[in-house]
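DATA SHEET
Item: assembly model
Revision: 1
Owner: S.N.
Input lines:
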Amino acid sequence: MLLACVEVFFGFACERADPRFYGTTRPKHGADEVWYCLVSEPEWLDPSKASDSASGTVITNVFEGLLQANPKTLEPVPGVAHGWEVFDGGRRYRFHLRDSQWSDGVPVTAHDFEFAWKRLLNPKTASRYATFLYPVRYGEEAHRRALRISGLTAQVTEAQVRAFVGGQSDIEKVVMAPEQRSAFVHLQAPEGQTGVEHTRGVITRLKGRALAGRPVRVSMTDVSVVGVKALSDHILEVTLTDPLPYFLSIVSFYSTMPLPRHLFKRLEAEGIPQPLWTRPEHIVSNGPYRLSEWAFRQYIVLEKNPRYWDAEHVRIRKVRLPMVESYNTVLNLYKAGELDHIGEAALPSEFMDHLEGFQDFRRANYLATYFLWVNTGAPPLDNPLVREALSLSIDRESLVKYVARGGQIPTRDMVPGGVGGYRSLGRKLFDPEAARAALTKAGYGPGNPLPPITYRYNTAEAHKQIAEAVQQMWKEHLGIEVGIENQEWKVYLKQLEAHEFQLARLGWIGDYADANTFLEILRSTSGNNHSNWRSPTFDGMLDRANGTLDRAHRLELLREAEAFAMQHNPVIPMYVYTRSELIKPYLRGAYLNYQTRTYFKYMWIDERYYDGTPEPLPDGLPRVPKPILPGGSGSPELPRAPKPILPAGSGSPSASGPDGGATRGPDAGRSSLGESRP
Amino acid sequence: MTRFIVGRVLGLIPTLLVIVTLSFFVIRLAPGSPFTTERGVPKEVVEELQAHYGFDRPFQEQLFNYLANLASGNLGLSTKYPQRTVNEIIAAGFPPTLLIGSFALLWALLFGVSAGIIGAMRQNTVFDYGAMSLAMVGISLPTFVLGPLLALVFGLTLYVLPPAGWGAARHVVLPAVTLGTVYAAYVARLTRGGMLEVVRADFVRTARAKGLSEQLIIWRHMLRGGLLPVVTFLGPAIANILVGSVVVEKIFAVPGIGPYFVDAAFNRDYFLVMGIVVVYSAFLLVMNLIVDVLYGFLDPRVRYT
Amino acid sequence: MTAGEQDGPPVAGQGAELVRGVSLWQDAWARLKRNRMAMIGAANTLLLVFLCFLGPIAVRAVWGYGYETQDLAYGARPPNAEHWFGTDFFGRDLLTRVLYGGQISLTVGLLAATVAATVGTLYGAVSGYLGGRVDNLMMRIVDVIYALPYMFLVIILIAIFQATNLVSLFVGLGMVGWLMTARIVRGQILSLKEREFVQAARSMGVSGPTTIVRHLIPNTLGPIIVYFTLTVPSMILQEAFLSFLGLGVQAPRPSLGALINDGAQHMTVFWWELVFPATAMAVLLFSLNFVGDGVRDALDPQMRGRG
C-alpha cells in the first residue's frame, strides 16, 4: 500500500476495489463522459462504404437515418422521419421527415436520402452493403449494371427481348419494366472478362438494331431508375419490388443514413478528394454526436451535436472510443477504470466462470449461429446418413457448458428460435445411438472404416478449442478419427469458396431479425452457400414464403423450408451465440440487444458512484420517440408495427481472422470468443 | 572515410531495389486477395475495387508503377484502411514504435552495461554470478510473459502505472522495460565478455602503471574496447526491437508500427506490406551502416577502404 | 554488418591451433570438462531430453492418457495429487503437456538450428571459396534477405504452404536463421583458403567441392558448432514468439511456447498454466545457454563473451 501511494508523478490514486465488481467502481471522468472500447480502427466512417462493426458503432451515433432502432428491442422507431405511410400492399412507402439540421446548420432534406441511397447502389461506390437496397425497385439492376433496353412499346414481350440480346450474350435474367418502357437484362460475362467490359461490348454490337421492328436505345443501367425519390424536401417515397416484412429494419440500418450533399459539392469545388469527407476537419453529420478527434488506431472522440433534433435528451457530452485489440489488455483497462464498457471486445471462454460472478457482468443472446459447412460434393460426406451421424453425435450441451462457456444456446437448427417471431425447429440435439445406427446403415463400421475426414477452422484459439472438443466427441461416440486443420483467414475463405474442404466452421450473423437471413445462404444461387447442396425445391419454398403477405403464414412456410433443408444436413449447427459484456455499474442506459448496436445517446453516468459503491439499479425502458403521422392518422395503411425485425449490425459470417483478428471486430472477434468457445 | 560512407550509401539503393522487387513478387504468391471476405461480395464490387487499386493491370506494369511512385516517395493506398495512404499509416505508427524502441535500448544499455562492468570487475564473485544469472533470466523470459506480469504488478495490483494505453509519459515505462529487458541481458553478457578481454591488455596495464585511478581506467580506456561487441550487437538488435514490438504493442495497446508486420500480411494489404518492408529494410540498412562507421571509431584496427 | 572483412569472429590465432590438429578437440574437451556451469547445464539438458521424450510415453503406459486426452468436466483444476501440474481448460493433464511440449520445442529448436547450420555452412563456404564477383553477389543476397522483416517471410512461407505444421515451421525458422552462419563461415573460409594446405590440395588437382568439404569445412567446425549451440535456444524462443502470433505449432500439439502463451493469457485466473511451462522453458533455456557458453569458451576462447 505504501508503494501504491507514492503518487509522485504517476498521478494514480490508491484504489480499493469493491469485490462485487470487476475492478474500480468510481468513474475516472466527469459525469458527462463515456469511455467505450471500439476494439479496432473503423475502415470507413462513410455510411455507404462501411461494413465493419467499429465503423457501424461510430456511424450509428454520428448519423441518423429515417428510422432508428429501439436500443433494447431493436424495433424500428422514428428518426429523421417522424412518421411513414405504406401503400400498395407493402410495395410503396412514404416517409415524412421532420425539420432537422446537419451539424453545420444546413437543413436535412429528403434529397439527402435520395442521394445517399443512390450512391450506395452506384457500383462505383463499391459498397459491400449495396445488396441491402436490392429490394428497392431496380436497385439490383442499377448496382449490377444490367443492360437497359428503353423505348419499348407496351406490346414487347420478354421472349422478344431475350431473342434480341440472346445472340450476343448469355442471359442470367430479364426484368420487364413497362412503366419505364424498358427492359433490364442481366448478362452473364464469359470467363476472363469483367462484367462491365462485356456489357460495353454487347451495347456496341446492339447499337442501331431494331427490336420488334422499332428502333430502341441500349445502355448500361444507372441509378436514375432506382425506386427512391424525394417528392419534396420533407417527403421521401420508396418503391419496392416485393413487399418485404423487414424493410423498416433496413431503413434503420446505418448503410441507409443520409449524406451531406452540400459538403460533397463544396469539397469538389475546393478540389479535395471526396474520400476525405469523413475526416474530422471536413465531416458534417446529423446524428446525436459529431466526430471531434480521430487518432489513427488510437482513439476516436465524439462530441454532442448541439444541432441534433433531440439534443435536449442527450446526456453524455463526450464519448471516448479507444481502439484496443487484445482482450487481455481490454480487461486490464476495464479493471483499472480506463474503460466503462468493453464494447465490442470479445471475452475468452476461460474467463467466463471467473467473470460471471461479478455484478457488472452482463450477457445477451446474439443473432448468430455457429455451424459447420459440410461439403456434400465428395464421399464420404455426399452420403446424408454420414452427415446425420456426424451431426447427431456432437454433445452440444457439454460443448457449450465446458468449452464455449458463454451461456450459448445449443442448437441443431440453422435459424435461432424467436428471430422475428420464428418458432425454431427444435431438432433433437444429441443422440449417439441414432448416430451410430445411421453410420452403420451407411455401410460403415469396424469392418469398413470411414475414409479420412478433415475438420477445418480458421486460426483462432476459440475455434481450435471447439474443433478439438468435437474431434474428441466423434472419436468417443462414433469411433471415427477426424483430422483437424487450421488455416489463415484469407486462405480459409478462398478454399471455402472453391469448395476445397470437407467440414469447415463458420459463424453466420443475421443481417436483420428475420429467418430469411439465415436460410438464404442455403439457396442454390447464393454465393455464400459453400455446401455444394443445391435444391431447386428449397429455392422454390423460400420464394413462395417471401412472396406471402400474411406474416404468420410466411413464417410457417419458412419453417417448412428450413425443415426440408435440414433433413439433408448441408450444415451442422452447434449453437446460437451470446454476447458477454462488462459494463461499469455507474454507466446507466447502456442496453444490450441481439446485435452489437450501441446508442450513446441513451447513456448517462450515475453520480452516486463518485462517493462510494451503492446498490446497482436496473435501467428501465429506453425513452424512444413515437411515430407521428401527417394530419393526424391520415395514413391508408398504417404499418402494423413490425415486431423486432432487425437490420443488421454487422452481417456476416464470423471468423476471427486477421481481419477481425482473434480479438477484433465484431464478427471476427465475437465468433472467436465470447462465443468463440461455443 | 567520406568516400567510404558515400559509396556505402549509394550501394544501398540497388539492394533496396532488389528487396522491393522480391517482396512485391513474394506477397502476390500468397493465396487470397485483399478483397476476400466472409460475406460474398458481388463480383461487380470486387472488380471496382481491383480497378481502384490498379490490381487489374499486368504484373510488370503494377511493379513499374509501384517503383515510380516509390521514387517520388509515394507508398500507395492501404486496402485495409482505405481512407489512409500507406505514408500516413507509417508516419503515424513509426514515432510510437521508435519512442518505445529508444527507451528500450536506453534501458538495455544503462542496465546492461552497468551489470556487465560489475560482473567483469568483480569476476567470479557473488556480484558477477548475481548479475549474470539475472541476465540469463532476462534471456529466458519471453516478452509475452514479462509484459502481462509487469502490467499485473504495476498496473492492477499497485495501481502505480497504467496497465496499457498511450498518450502520456507514464505509458512508455512498462512497454519499454518489457521490450528492453532481453536486450539488457544480452548487453550485460557482451559487456562483461568485452571488458574481460581488455582487462589484461597492454594499454590497460600501462594506464595502471601510470597510476591512474580505477574509475578513469574503466571510463577512459577499457570501455572503448570493451564495448566493441556491444556495438556489433546493436545493429541487429535495433532491427529486432522493431519486429519485437509486435508483442509489446499488442499487450500495451501502443499504436505503433509493430502489428503491421503480421496483420498487413494476413490482410493481404499489398501496399502496406510493401511500405513496411521498404521502411524497415531502409532503416535496417542505414543502422548497419552506422554501426560499421561507429565500429571504425572505436576500433583503430579497422580501416576503411 | 556487411560483407566486409570485419565479418564473423576474428580469426587471428587460428593458425596455431590448426597446426595442433587433433589436440584442438582434446584441448577443448578438457576445457569444457573444467567448466562447472557447462557440465551442470549439459547434465540438465540430457535429463530434460530424457524426461520430455520418455515421460509422455510412460504416462500413456501407466495412466492411460496422453497430452491430448480431454476430460471436459475436469477442466482447469489447480495442481493436486492426481495431476501434479494441474489440468488445463479441457481437463488435459498439464504435466504431460509440458513434457510433450518440451519434446516439440527441443525438436523444433534442434531441427531449425540444423537447417540453419547446414544451409549457412554450405552457402558461406561456397561463397568464400569462389570469392570475387560470385562472393560479392552471394553476400549481397544475404544482405537483401537479412534486411527483410523475417516475420513477413515466415508468414508468407506459411501462407504459401497453406498449413502450419512442424515442417513448414522449422523450415521457415531455419531459412531465416542461416544468414549469420553463412557470414561466419565465409569469413573463416576467406582466410583459410590462402593457407598452405589448401593451396597444396589445389595444386594437386583436388576439385573445388572436395576441397570445401574435406579441407575447409572441417577447419571451420569450431565456430559452426559454437554458433549452432547458441542457435538452438534462440530458435526455441522464436517458436514461442510465433506461437504468440498464432503461427506456431498447431493444436492439439503443444509446444512450450504455445503453453506459455496460453498461460500468459489466462494468468489472472489459472496461474498454474503459466508457472509450470514457463519454469520448464526457463530451465531448458538456462541449461542450453550454459552448454552453449561452455562450448564457445572451450572451442574458441577468442569468442568469449560474444553473443
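QC remark: The CA atoms of residues 105 and 297 of chain A lie 30 Å apart.
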